[in-house]
Amino acid sequence: MSTMLGPLELDRPVVAAAGTAGTGWELGEVLDLRCLGAVTTKSITRAPRTGNPAMRVAELPTGMMNAVGLANPGVDGFLREHRAKLDGLPCAVIGSVAGESVEDYLFVAEALASSGLDAVECNVSCPNTGDGRLFSDNPAQLQTLVAAVKAAVGSVPVLVKLPLDFQPASPAAQAAIDGGADVLTLTNTVPGLAIDPYTRRPRLGNGPGGVSGPGIHPMVVRMIRDVYTRVAQRAGVPILGLGGVFNWEDAAEMVLAGASAVGIGTALFADPKRAKKIDAGLQRWVRDQGADDLASLVGAMA
Ligand SMILES: Cc1cc2nc3c(=O)[nH]c(=O)nc-3n(C[C@H](O)[C@H](O)[C@H](O)COP(=O)(O)O)c2cc1C
Predict the structure, then answer these.
(1) What is the CATH number of the domain that holds 238?
(2) Closest C-alpha residue for ligand 1 atom 14
(3) 277: pLDDT confidence band, cut at 50, 70 and 90?
(4) Does 15 sit in the ligand 1 pocket, CB within 6 Å?
(5) Does the predicted model carry a pTM greater than 0.85?
(6) Residue 140 pLDDT grade (very low, low, confident, very high; cuts 50, 70, 90)
């Protein structure tokens, strides 16, 4: 059940998503992390951020909506207070990076990579702040950003996390690949707005937020399939599928669409132990399909 995400080898195919596993180590207090291939830190910025006003999360019939606003202790605070707690985890650690400029991304990515994290993920798709969106909305700038981060982190693998895109052959996916991305993470939350009919105010303090959970899953599967067949497979760039995975069947769908590994976010809030069930279910599925390994089922939609 090991899987290759480009140069990053994961022992297991399930990955805890950015912002849903604390800074990474906290998840180990409620889940045996041996069932995960990797944990992803919450997105880390150059300076500390307090994030958006309450309420920051709202429950939806189809999952949840959040506007946390990239609250984090900043890269120095992360290195001082959290980095050492990630040593010795039984899975890889991916450092998520966010920022407002190429310089911000370089600064944080370089610091995380040289601290010995296994990979960095450029979050260029946060729907709750202006950060990063500048890049995923502009393919030329995204390519420049990814190329600069690649050059700055040496041999440390670079994942690029993109927003849901309804356009065919996502131009952002192509730009990330042209910039040298080792892995595409598809996708972040989907922009949304929830309004309380009594107060007539938005349910989240920020106003709009990002929708996640089962409601976005079919859209994400479609994008994975589209990017895999039109762009990523040819380029040899693997996909980390992420969006609304709640059980092993959802994860298997992503693999068949073209994902080499599967992230889970909202499911961890519902029940962290789902990660173990999804991992075990995928393992049974690979065996039942008569496949030698998960890799032989990647993109194998009939
Ligand atoms: C409360 C919350 C906080 C999040 N924070 C981040 C973040 O800091 N950085 C990031 O790249 N994605 C963040 N995300 C997005 C998730 O990593 C994931 O892309 C998204 O939720 C879709 O996956 P899911 O449906 O399995 O939750 C956050 C999601 C939630 C629900």
Answers:
(1) 3.20.20.70
(2) 19
(3) very high
(4) no
(5) yes
(6) very high
* Residues belonging to the active site: 126
Locate the ligand 1 atom nearest the alpha carbon of residue 245 and give its number. Answer: 26
The helices-and-strands tally (H runs, E runs) of the chain is 10, 14
- Ligand 1 atom with minimal separation from the 19 CA: 5
The tokens for 102 are: 């190429």
Task: Say if 245 falls within a structural domain.
Answer: yes
Structure tokens at 198: 């009594």
Q: Is the dihedral of CA 39, 146, 135, 171 positive or negative?
A: negative
Instruction: Report how far residue 288's alpha carbon sits from residue 115's, in angstroms, rounded to the nearest whole number.
Output: 41
Q: Which domain holds residue 161?
A: 3-51+69-192+211-297
Instruction: Let me know if residue 113 belongs to a domain.
Output: yes
For the segment 170-195, the average pLDDT, to the nearest whole number, is 97
Tell me what pLDDT residue 136 has. 86
Q: What is the pLDDT of residue 128?
A: 65
Pocket of ligand 1 contains residue 245 by CB under 6 Å: yes
